[in-house]
Amino acid sequence: xxxxxxIGLSLFSSAGVAELNLSKHINFVLANELxxxxxxxxxxxxxxxxxxxxxxxxxxxxxxxxxxSINKEVDFVLATPPCQGVSLIGKNKRNDQFLKDQRNFLIFxxxxxxxxxxxxxxxxxxxxxxxxMFFPYNDGMYSIEDILHMKYDGVYQISCKVYNAAEYGxxxxxxxxxxxxxxxxxxxxxxxxxxxxxxxxxxxxHLPSLESGQSSNIKHHQARVHTQxxxxxxxxxxTGKSAFQNEVNFPRKKDGTKITGYPYTYKRIxxxxxxxxxxxxxxxxxxTHTVHPGRLLSNGLYSDARVLTLRELFILSxxxxxxxxxxxxxxxxxxxxxxxxxxxxxxxxICKNIKKxx
Length: 358
Fold this sequence. Notes:
The chain is of the alpha/beta class.
C-alpha cells in the first residue's frame, strides 16, 4: 500500500470540520464554500487549501473549480452538500416538498465537477434521510444510490451506507449517509465499530461545573448568559428530562400559561449515553437537546442550568477541544458550523480505510 497522500478537493466545505483529521491521508489543496464567513474560517483552519468562495451553481465558479482541480492534479473529492433541505428538523417532510428545495439538487453540480476532473476517489456525505429521497433523472425518479450506479458502474466501485458516529468513537449519536466511490486500483475497507460507545459522562464529565455567564480558565469552557426564567426552568429539571415535564417550573408565557413545545426542547441531555445529535441552535435552552446534564445539588436544584460550552460541543463532536478559533467568528457562528458538520473522527474512520493498491 502506498503512503502517498491523495490530493483533495472539498466541495460545500463550510469551515472544513470534516477535513480536520484527514491531513495524514489527504492533502486538501482546494475548497469551495458559499458563505464568506465559513470560507474565512476554512482558510483559518486550512491555510494550505485555496478557498474559492462562491456559488457552485454559477458557471464561472464551477469552471474555476474544474480548472484549478485539473492544474492541482486533484484525485480525491469530498462533497458534503447542505442537508437542511432534507433534515427532519427542516420544513421538508415529503418528497414533493423536497423537490421544491434547490439545495437538494446541489449534488448534481458536484457530479458535474467530478465528471470533468475524473478523480480516483469520491466521498459524498449527507444526512441519512438523503438516501430515501428520489430525484428526477433521465426517464424517472431514482434514489441517489441508483443514480450513481447508473452513471458510474464500470468506472467506480460504489459503497452506500448509513453510519452512526456513536458507533465509531464519537460521543454523539449522529447518523450520516456516506457514499464511497473508487476506481480500480483502490480499495475501501469498512471501518471497524468501536467496542464500546463513549458516554457524555466519559467525554465531558471531568470539566468543571459552570452556571450561566460563568467562565473557567480552561480554553473554550465559558458558559453563555441565559435569562432568569430559563435558568429557573432548568434548575428544576433533572438530568435527561425536559422542563416541560416539571410540575411547577415549566416553560410558560407571560400570562403564566404553559408554552406549547416539543418534549426534546428545554431538555437536559443524559450522562450515561452518547449525546443526541447536535444542531445549529446549540446556543438556546429552548432548542433541541442543548442543556448540560447537570448534577443534583444539596438544595434539591440541578447544577449547570445552561447550554453546553464550546469546549463541550467540540469534545462531543470529536473536534480537538483546544482548536484555535479566529477572532472574526462569533460564538454563534462557530456553533452553527459545528451543528451542521460531520464529526471528523467519523470521516477519518472512513477515509483512512481508502487505500491505493500497489
